[in-house]
Structure formats: structure tokens, C-alpha cells
Specification:
single chain, Aminopeptidase, nine-stranded mixed sheet
Length: 398
């Protein structure tokens, strides 16, 4: 019988379940000697005639098999894709890390984002780890899903986490209670505007899923969240802050270590078909990596995006677009100030938050009025004002 190929995304499976595959007996952090995850997944009968492709093994979490366990299989390993982490253990303090990793300009920018966010709103930062009310967890995880949905709809892109959301939602609460995960939340007046789900393995902090309300884009909430979580890591004695796979600019900015992911193809050495198929599979995967280095993989993604329905929610709008107008003469506004908290006025939040950031004024000092022109509004502070016309309203319905 021809062997089947079973694929396992190791780091994602392990941090979400803390179980190891039947052909390993432990997971080790080579740099610290810590050992994790002795609970094994159940072996299935159909595993006997299968090749096991274990993907995304980072250098700080190595699955191992000791010969005495009787579980070991032959394997071929190869490296593919880059991961990024900040080696916090190499620095005496947060300030030392920031000075070594970020330029003076970048450090000043981060501080400005935080200063303006906290100057415009009543902001608090909370990390939930250990005990957590289930009702609060449900509210936050649902809000996080909304943030991700709007963000990726804005980008016209797909998201792996949203496809697996049912599993993430079901398993994360117990991990938080067992001190193996955390939720980091940025609150504005008790309302969450940024939420991150993180996994904790010993003194390793894995920043798994970050999300924020895109109406606050101008405040660079993504940068603020990373800064505040690294600050928390130093306070808690974490040694690594991992941002995982993916060549993105913000990872290059924050991380001082780039590492290759290891991938392994496991097979039974006494089975000729498995030996042959393992070699063919490794060759095929290396050829795919070659095509990626030559950027030929982009053609595939372009063709995929061009298929009908390949881009989620085609034609939908995730954010408000607007243009500025000349300030009106007095008396060109109608009615009472609009309430931004009402869902019907949600489309006004982004232009108002932009106004707050650019003029460095607190939210409580600003009012919004409807003007006589169609979709025209006046944002009025104590000393400054701005007239706008909405050209595209955000549509948050699913």
C-alpha cells in the first residue's frame, strides 16, 4: 500500500495543545535545557503506513525522541522560512534593549504614539494570565475576531487564524487558566481597542495573534501593543519575545534574531516505499522553496486572487474614507452634537480620532455636528475645527 503523507504544523500544535506527536517523547529548549510537553497524542492505526511531515520547528523548541522510548522513526530534515524573535535575555533592561534595537528616531516615534494615545483617551493596559472570568473571555475573544475580520477585509486578504477561529476560541481559555497563554488588552474608557493572544512556554513569549480597531490606525496601535508587551516581558523575566514566521517590516524593526524553521520528514527505515517517498517529498519541497526564492510563487497568488470569490467580501468596505473641506461660516451646522457611541455614527469615529491625534486634544473636548451639505460634518474642538465630507462609509456588517 502506498504510504500517505500526514502534515503537522509543529509549533502551532504544540503551543495550543501542549501535546507531542507519538514519534517524539519530549520537547526541549536547547539554550535553557527546559523540557516541555510529556503528554503524547494518541497513536492512530493509520499512522503505521504514513510519512510524517513535521513543519515549523523553531530552534528554541526542539521535539526529540530517545531510543529507549521505542517511538523513534528515521527522518530527513531541511530548513525553510524565517522566524523572528527578540532575545530579551541578552539585555539588562527595556531601555538597553530599545537603545540597541531601535534608532533614536524610532524610539521617539513609539513614545509619541503612546503619549498621544494616552493624551486623547483614558487608556489602560491589562494582561490576563491565570484566573479569568469566562464571560469576560468570551466578550474579548469575540471582539478580537471582529477586529481581525475588519482588518483583513480592509486589506482584501485572507487570514489563517480566522479559518481556525473555532479551535482557537475553544482552547485558549483553558490555556490562559493554566498560565500557558495570555490576553493583552488595550482599553479606552473600559472599551477594548487592541487585543493580543499570546502563548507562554517557560520563559518564552510567543506573540501569536495581534488585533486592533482600525478606526485607531493613526495611533499605530500595533506598535504600541508590541512595545507594551515587551515591557511586560521584562517585568516578568521573559527571555524571548517571538513574532514567528513571516518577513514583515515590523518584525525586522523589533527583532534582533532571525532564525530558520526546521522541517522533518519521518519514515520507517525498513519500508522501501516510505524511504523512496520521503526522498521524493523532500526534493519537491526544496524545489518549491527554490521557486519562492525566484519570486515565481507570486504568480500563483496573483492567479488565486483573480479567481471569483478568492478575495473575501469583495466590494465591502472596512473603513471610512473622507476629504477635508473649507471651514463653514457660523450657523452652517444642524441639530445637537452627534453621539459617536451610537452604531449609526460609527463611520465618524476614524475622522474624529484622526483629528484628535493630529491636534493633540482629548476626546472629551471635541463635538461633531452635521452640516447642511450631503455627508458633510464639522469636528469642533475648543481651539480648532475641521470640516469633512464622507466619501465612503465603513460597513461593519458580516
Amino acid at each position: 500500500m502506498i504510504p500517505k503523507v500526514r502534515t503537522y504544523p509543529f509549533v502551532f500544535n504544540f503551543i495550543q495543545t501542549r501535546k507531542i506527536y507519538p514519534f517524539y517523547d519530549r520537547v526541549v529548549n536547547p539554550s535553557s535545557g527546559e523540557s516541555f510537553g510529556r503528554e503524547s497524542m494518541e497513536a492512530e492505526p493509520k499512522m503505521e503506513n504514513a510519512i510524517h511531515l513535521v513543519r515549523y520547528i523553531p530552534p528554541f523548541l526542539k521535539p526529540e525522541c530517545t531510543p529507549e522510548s521505542g517511538r523513534c522513526l528515521n527522518h530527513v530534515s531541511f530548513r525553510q522560512f524565517r522566524g523572528y524573535l527578540a532575545n530579551l535575555g541578552a539585555y539588562a533592561s527595556l531601555d538597553a534593549y530599545l537603545k540597541a534595537q531601535l534608532s533614536s528616531k524610532r524610539r521617539n516615534n513609539i513614545r509619541r504614539y503612546i503619549r498621544r494615545l494616552e493624551g486623547c483617551f483614558q487608556v489602560t493596559y491589562v494582561t490576563y494570565r491565570g484566573q479569568m472570568d469566562r464571560e469576560l473571555y468570551d466578550r474579548l475573544i469575540n471582539r478580537m475576531k471582529e477586529f481581525l475580520y475588519r482588518r483583513f477585509r480592509q486589506r482584501g486578504d485572507d487570514n489563517e487564524m480566522l479559518r481556525n477561529w473555532e479551535f482557537i476560541e475553544r482552547t485558549s481559555y483553558d490555556l490562559i487558566k493554566r498560565d500557558q497563554a495570555s490576553l493583552f488588552v488595550v482599553y479606552r474608557d473600559q472599551e477594548p481597542i487592541g487585543i493580543s493572544l499570546n502563548y507562554l512556554v517557560g520563559r518564552i513569549f510567543l506573540n501569536a495573534i495581534g488585533s486592533f480597531d482600525i478606526d485607531f490606525n493613526i495611533f499605530r496601535l500595533g506598535q504600541v501593543q508590541i512595545y507594551k508587551q515587551i515591557e511586560w516581558c521584562f517585568e516578568e523575566g521573559m527571555q524571548m519575545f517571538d513574532l514567528g514566521v513571516g518577513d514583515l517590516d515590523y518584525k525586522l524593526q523589533w527583532c534582533d534574531v532571525t532564525y530558520p524553521f526546521e522541517h522533518r520528514v519521518h519514515y520507517r527505515g525498513n519500508n522501501f516505499l516510505q524511504v523512496l517517498m520521503a526522498r521524493v517529498l523532500v526534493g519537491f519541497l526544496r524545489f518549491k522553496e527554490y521557486l519562492k526564492r525566484k519570486n515565481l510563487h507570486r504568480l500563483y497568488h496573483l492567479l488565486r486572487k483573480g479567481r471569483p470569490g478568492a478575495t473575501p467580501d469583495a466590494g465591502s468596505t472596512a473603513e471610512t474614507l473622507y476629504e477635508t473641506l473649507a471651514l463653514p461660516k457660523s450657523g452652517n451646522v444642524t441639530g445637537s452634537p452627534l453621539k459617536l457611541g451610537e452604531e449609526t455614527n460609527r463611520f465618524l469615529r476614524k475622522p474624529v480620532y484622526d483629528f484628535l491625534y493630529l491636534n493633540q486634544v482629548p476626546a472629551g473636548s471635541v463635538s461633531v455636528f452635521r452640516m447642511h451639505g450631503p455627508e458633510e460634518y464639522l469636528i469642533r474642538g475648543k481651539a480648532k475645527a475641521q470640516a469633512i465630507r464622507i466619501t465612503q462609509k465603513s460597513n461593519t456588517s458580516r
